[in-house]
Specification:
Layout: E1 26-40, E2 48-60, H1 70-83, H2 88-101, E3 108-122, E4 129-143, E5 146-160, H3 162-179, H4 188-196, E6 207-218, H5 227-238, H6 248-260, H7 265-277, E7 282-291, E8 300-307
Antiparallel strand pairs: 1-2, 2-3, 3-4, 4-5, 5-6, 6-7, 7-8
Helix pairs in contact: 1-2, 5-7
C-alpha cells in the first residue's frame, strides 16, 4: 500500500505487505509496556484518569502475512482507554475493535493493564483518613466471541506470629510469678500497675508487614470491575490491613487487632480464600501470601487457588 504526505509527495514504501519468509501463523503479536492514560469509573465522583502500563496483542492467522497493523492498535488504545471508563463491556468493545482493525489478519485479542489505584481509607478510631495505593492488573482476552476477564490486586497487612505470641505469654507469666512470689494479698491495683509498667512486658511477639496477592476471574454477568469491594473483603478477612494517617488511639486499636488476629501465612491464605470462594462475582481465584519475616532473613509464603461452582 502506498502512502503520500505533503512532506513526502512520493509514495512511502511499506514492506509490511511483502510476503513472509518461513510463512506460518503466529499465536500472538503486539506491543508491551505502553505508557497510556486510562479512565477509571469513579462511583459518584467523576471518572479518574491515571497512568497505566499496557500490553496488547492479537493473533496473526494469515500464515503468509508478514506482520500486523501495530499503529492501528496503538491509536485505538490511546483513544478508547482515555475516554471510556474501564468496564467489562468497554473492554469487550476495545478488543473487538482491535480484531477488526487488522482487516482479517486476526481472530482474537488480548489486553493487559497495570496501574496503581488510590483508595481513601479511614483510621481505625480517630476521624483521620489517608490514601493507600493498591497495585492492580487487569487482563482481558476475546476469543471466539467469549470474553475472559481477570482482575489482580495486592493488599498489605500486618501478621503477628501465633507461636511467638504463645512464647511471649509464657515469658510474661514467668516474670509475673517471679515478681509476685511473696506478695500476698494481690490487689487489682497492684496487678494493674505492674502490667502497665515496663516489668509487665517481658517479651513481645514478632510481627511483620505482609502482602496478599489476589487474582480472580470475573463472571461475565457483572459489568463493573469490583476493585474496591474486593479490597474491602480481603482486608476484612485478614483483620490487620496497614494504616495510613493514625493517632495514638488508632495505633492502640491496631495493636489490639493484631492480638485478635494472630496468623501464620497458612492462616492468612485460608482467610482470603474463604471470602473469594463465597463471592458470586468470582468464577476462579488464586491467592498468594508472603510474610516478610522479622525473625528470619527469608519470607514465609503460602498459596491456594480454586474455582467456584
Amino acid at each position: 500500500m502506498e502512502s503520500r504526505t505533503p512532506q513526502h509527495p512520493q509514495p512511502l514504501p511499506d514492506v509490511a505487505h511483502e510476503a513472509a519468509a518461513l510463512a506460518r501463523p503466529l499465536d500472538w503479536v503486539g506491543m508491551e509496556a505502553l505508557a497510556l492514560p486510562i479512565r477509571l469509573a469513579g462511583g459518584d465522583a467523576s471518572p479518574l484518569l491515571v497512568t497505566a502500563e499496557v500490553d496488547v496483542a492479537v493473533d496473526l492467522r494469515d500464515a503468509g502475512a508478514r506482520g500486523i497493523h501495530m499503529s492501528r492498535l496503538y491509536l485505538l488504545l490511546q483513544d478508547q482507554l482515555a475516554n471510556e471508563p474501564l468496564t467489562a463491556p468497554g473492554l469487550r468493545r476495545l478488543l473487538d475493535a482491535c480484531i477488526a482493525s487488522q482487516q482479517g489478519l486476526a481472530t482474537r485479542a488480548r489486553l493487559r493493564l497495570r496501574y496503581e489505584h488510590l483508595l481513601l481509607r479511614p483510621a481505625l478510631v480517630s476521624a483521620h483518613a489517608g490514601w493507600k495505593r493498591y497495585p492492580v492488573e487487569v487482563e482481558a482476552e476475546l476469543r471466539d466471541g467469549h470474553l475472559s476477564l481477570w482482575l489482580g490486586l495486592a493488599v498489605d497487612y500486618s501478621s503477628t506470629c501465633p507461636a511467638s505470641a504463645a512464647l511471649s505469654r509464657q515469658a510474661n507469666a514467668a516474670r509475673f510469678e517471679s515478681d509476685f512470689a511473696g506478695a500476698r494479698p494481690l490487689s487489682n491495683t497492684l496487678v494493674r500497675d505492674w502490667l502497665a509498667s515496663p516489668r509487665g512486658l517481658a517479651a513481645t511477639p514478632h510481627a511483620q508487614r505482609s502482602r496478599a496477592r489476589v487474582r480472580v476471574e470475573l463472571r461475565p454477568a457483572f459489568a463493573e470491575l469490583p476493585l474496591a469491594a474486593l479490597v474491602d473483603a480481603v482486608e476484612a478477612s485478614l483483620g490487620t490491613p496497614v494504616q495510613t494517617a493514625v493517632k495514638r488511639e488508632d495505633e492502640q486499636a491496631f495493636a489490639e487487632a493484631n492480638a485478635a488476629n494472630l496468623m501464620f501465612c497458612e492462616d492468612a491464605a485460608r482467610r482470603v480464600a474463604s471470602v473469594l470462594a463465597a463471592d458470586a462475582r468470582v468464577a476462579a481465584w488464586d491467592v498468594q501470601v508472603a510474610h516478610f519475616e522479622s525473625l528470619h532473613p527469608h519470607d514465609a509464603v503460602a498459596s491456594v487457588s480454586g474455582r467456584n461452582s
